[in-house]
Amino acid sequence: MTTKNVHMKIGEMKTATGLVKNLEVSIGKIVDDSWAEPMGPTPMPSISALRDWDMKLLTKYKPFYMPDCDLCCLCTYGKCDLTAGKRGACGLDIAAQSSRIVLIACSIGAATHTAHARHLVDHLIEKYGRNYPLDVGGLNVKVEAPVTRLVTGIRPKTLGDLAEVLDYCETQITHCLSAAHTGQEGNNLDFESKAFHAGRIDQVGMEVADIAQISALDFPKADPEAPLIEMGIGTVDTSKPVIMCIGHNVVPSVGIIDYMKENKLDGKIEVVGLCCTAFDNTRYYDRAKIVGPISWQLRFVRGGFADVVVLDEQCIRTDIFSEAERVKAPVIAASEKNCMGFKNRTNDPADEIVADLVSGKVPGVLILDPEKVGEVAVKVATKIAPIRRKYRVLPEIDEIKALAKTCRQCNMCQRSCPQDLSIPVALKAAAEGNMALLADLYEECIGCGRCEEACPVKLQIHSFIIKAGEKCMLEEKNYCRSGRGAVQDTEIRNVGSPIVLGEIPGILAVVGCANYPHGGKDVYDICREFALRRFIVVTSGCSAMSAGSYKNAEGKTLYEEFPGEFAAGGVLNVGSCVANSHIAGAAIKVANIFAKRNLRGNYEEIADYIHNRVGAVGLAWGAYSQKAASIAAGFWSLGIPVLVGPHGSKYRRMLLGRADKPENWEVYDARTGEKVNVGPAPEHLFQTVETPQEAMVAIAKLCMRPNDTWKGRSIKLSHYIDLHKRHYGCMPPDIHLFVRTLADVPMTMKDEIVKILEAKGWKETVIPDPTLLPRMIRKKKE
Amino acid sequence: MSMFSDIPVDVGVIYEGERIRRNDMYVELGGPTVQEKFELAKVRPADTIEDGKVIIIGPDIKDMKEGGAYPLGVLVEAAGATLDEGLEGVIERRIHGYMNFIEGFMHLNQRYDIWIRLSKKSFQKGLNSFEYIGKVLHRLFKSELPIIEKLQVTFITDPEKIKELYPQALQAYEARDAKARGLKDEDVDKFYGCILCQSFAPTHVCVITPQRYSNCGAISWFDGRASASVDPKGPVFAIEKGELLDPVKGEYSGVNETVKKKTLGEVNQVWLYTAFGHPHTSCGCFEAVAFYIPEVDGFGLVHRGFKGVTVNGLPFSTLADSTAGGRQVDGFHGLSIEYMRSKKFLEADGGWHRVVWVPKEVKERVKDFIPKDVVDKIATEEDAQNLDALKAFLKEKGHPVVAKWAAAEAAAGEAAPAEVKEEEGAMIPMATAATLPIMAGGFKIILKDAKIYAKKVLIRPIKDEKKVRAG
Question: Could you tell me which chain B residue has the CA closest to the CA of A533?
Fold first, then answer.
């Protein structure tokens, strides 16, 4: 707890022990230093404070550039051609420019989460007061804010403490972004280091946002048995008025749910959500429903299910108001960041706004008071639902057939489709009355709507696809576990022994959107594969929804099939985007809980610990916004590898290790100070893969760490070899790089592998107490 | 070629977690519907068994009816120059792991409680004989435990034969348990050390003796012995006991030397059977914590699964945090549940006679090992949820610690036991008028027209010297 600018004046005071006259006390800052943990070397690091650590990682995992664009058009000197080694007017080359764009993306992502956090914290302080205590998980969570403790050195106890943490984040994001100005930073690795820094700040911003809402809004508190939530458009009861909330910030939805409850309308109105708002709604009210991931918002809005659309912030289609207008659903914009051109009606009487929206006088309004949003949304939905029932929103099959005949087969739709889907062929079939091909596209389409923009005869291709796939859409009835929040300290203790003994081969975090043809199914398959293999599988955001959108042979979704604990074979949904911080938080807590390493302002040491010991891998399967870049950067700087799916080349650069260079894989053995070659574990820090099969092999491989006990390594190798054999049809070519002693060799493959080791001239080495930091070499005490 | 190329299904550790549901099952062996079933490992003289031989007494899998449940006995007989009966338990427990590596072959439980299912899919692939299962066991045992020179496996499905052998198996378990529990530290020359946890807690060394299980509860002295003999360079190693320096506290010169070496001098001295002075270090994954409660001069015990707060107001997570990370912390002690069953359990501190509070779940589990004269005098969360209630309970029941209170009260005033609890309040009051007058050594200070400016004021808790009454 910190208090700023305390001033006190006493005229005269007599007590038994003394006399005080005209005493003035002025204190700049009162710092509660009751936290016994000593402060580490880098509390509230500046943009260069952790540069040495970043460079260590960036030397090991050099950026490999794949520029999405060879030009720079950020300033009016340009456009500058940066091909073939040319430098632009400011002197930057393509390497630095690519990293600069990464920095800008990460800064945007960090700013978005931090601004989200700021809005939440300010709002909650206004409502509950600065001194409202934080409670993330009751008795089972002692380390309430691992990321914040680690980065800032602050142990927050109240909402007010979080506001101070955000002051720091906001300053840092400003510095990060300023480095991207023309004529500032010039070196590509320095840009990368600053991008890592933006990632660190992003993790803090996310953590602040989530622990604030968990505490004040009483979300599930690190609960492995958070409720199962109905999910899918098929679960929405359209006989009731439907309010559809889109975005990431739960505050307006809380207004809606509270109003509904106060007026005993819960149960009479459906509150459904898309994207992270959907999750946070269910964390607040377990009868809220999840429609699906945000990538398909066009599908769900155009399907006409919503009577009112409420927008908050982030990842919302910016043309959503015109889409809503097509289906005569009024729109309420509820975030300052996203005013959508609507008139600000915050100060108007609610009933006036309701009348205007119901009569169609205005298509949408901006309301910045969440309570008023609640009242207006509920009233409008109730009044407009019976009227809207009459509208037919999707074209009938006959209409599609007739319209498809006007298709010129110019192929512009397919050319503009990011997935190159065979739309012209499907339209041709539709013209002949065969809707099957269009229906197939329903599963593959990522819902961007670019095809319609490109069509010279203005066919509503996306609507055709939705109609053809309508049956499929209405059958979407699944379960998703509501976001549980943090991982308990006690759960981490529970997995200590199985991780050490190799029974848990790794931790897989599937985050972001699965926005890719069949991406949802891919995510489901990957999660299930690793849950069956007794990995710990953590999900968040839209991927958590995708993971729950398919069923096993017994008709159970992933969340029904596997327990929600942080344990071998558990599948746990931490929650919305901002809950991603709990994944990094869990890794950070491992260091604190097992090795009693101090977290407070001690970033480098803890990142070194995690990088060398905690076998965690992140996976972001589909196309995603700038927030993906910053979330990934937060993991990179902790030394946790991240995999991205087939669209991953658009991230402009990968961070790849070189398995062929043994000198890159040396660590210090903290016990002896000697350098030990530990092999490429983990091999890459940021890598793109093209297929789910490739992803599975890479995940198994990237879980290896230098500290693995022989039991742990032999199990990790078994999974890597098994998946490699299954998907590539052969033994991995690099197996010898991962065997330190013969005990590492999986027992069921001993003879086969020993032969390979002999052929490769393998030599036994030791399992060190690994570190990249010379200062961590232990001094022998006599 | 792979070592299992002649087995019709795949063999690998990835099948370990495989579950076979009733609908997918071809046959069930043992399990809840079968009365008599067992698996047993025996060490035999080398000339009495034939290496690699698989014997099947009764119908083989292919002779069984689909969907049926059959009795099964598995007898693994091993021979080797350095093998002895003490390792039978270790060998026997590996049957579970190895059988589970077989694709479509699920093995649950152990001893007289085994439950096996074979999947339809694996049966169709050709896994239709115990011959294959025997071959897998033979190869894995020989490759993983090189101290086994010869190994023979017998599968018994003939109900008559099982009836005959079943009582013998029960007898063997009984004898083994009695021997294991009866084995004392004094009976052996070597203890075992384990540094597996150093992969996460780099300064922790576990010392495992016949009367002290590893903190995690996973490694007994016998397990330690097996691991060390299989992989002498591995993370589990023998410790020569050396000289017994303190028979009460459990201090051995050999243990001190080894711990000093393995912790690079962080820890020089270990007393195995006390929570005070130089207690055994705690890793991160201990099953339970013993925590000293100065107010009653006794120990509370709490296990990882306990959901609420303990009798002193702190939950497991906080207590665990007070001792974890390979440190020796006076009065806080990470340990295993199995150790609570040991006669040496906190012996120097009074053992169970010094324990005053334990969660009901743990008490039930170890009840038979708590001395009869004190078992009903130890409170659970149902008897006491705070220190006052605990004191009342202990007094009422006449717990042995109560007798010591009077003695302590006589000496009261010297050293009030310190609270280790941290200030938990979210809001610390700013300076109030009442705190302003300053007293210093009998002087009165008068502040007049004083202005005090401070750029920053740090508020720190006053650290009390922690004093603990030992023994």
Answer: B14
Contact assignment for B324 to A782 by CB distance below 8 Å: no
In a 10 Å sphere around its CB, with 0-12 CB exposed, 13-18 middle and 19+ buried, how is residue B23 labelled?
exposed
Tell me whether residue A736 is in a domain: yes
* ipTM for this prediction: 0.76
Do A164 and A260 fall within a single domain?
no
Beta strands in B311-399 (DSSP E): 332-335, 355-357
Query: Does A531 reside within a domain?
Result: yes
Nearest to A781 among B12, B266, B459 (CB): B266
- The per-residue pLDDT for range A142-189, each reduced to its tens digit, is 899 999 999 999 999 999 999 999 999 999 999 999 999 999 999 999
pLDDT score of B27 more than 90: yes
- Number of domains forming the structure of chain A: 5
Please tell me which of the candidates B16, B264, B283 has its beta carbon nearest to residue A780.
Answer: B264
Asked whether residue A248 falls in the same domain as residue A125, the answer is no
DSSP state of A232: S
**Three-state secondary structure call for residue B331:** coil
pLDDT in tens, B281-302: 988 778 999 999 999 999 999 9
- From chain B, the residues in CB contact with A141 under 8 A are 317
Put simply, the answer to whether B317 touches A488 (Cβ < 8 Å) is: yes
**Which tokens hold the place of B86?**
């003490």
Q: Would the pLDDT of B421 be above 60?
A: no
Residue range of the domain that includes A276: 233-388
User: Reduced to 3 states, what is the DSSP secondary structure of residue B76?
Assistant: strand
Counting one residue from chain A and one from chain B, the pairs whose CB atoms sit within 8 A come to 246
What is the rounded CA–CA span in Å between residue A693 and residue A700?
A: 11
Per-residue model confidence as pLDDT tens digits over A737-782: 999 999 899 988 988 999 999 999 999 999 999 999 999 998 877 6
Q: Which domain holds residue B31?
A: 13-182
Site from B317, B335, B451, B463 to mutate, A interface, most A CB atoms within 10 angstroms: B317
- Say if residue A548 is in the same domain as residue A623: yes
What's the number of domains chain B is made of? Answer: 2
Q: How far apart are CA A422 and CA A427, in angstroms?
A: 9
Q: What is the pLDDT of residue A2?
A: 59
Same domain, B196 and B211: yes
- Asked whether residue B5 is assigned to any structural domain, the reply reads no
The pTM score is 0.88
- Who among B324, B427, B431 is closest to A25 (CB)? B431
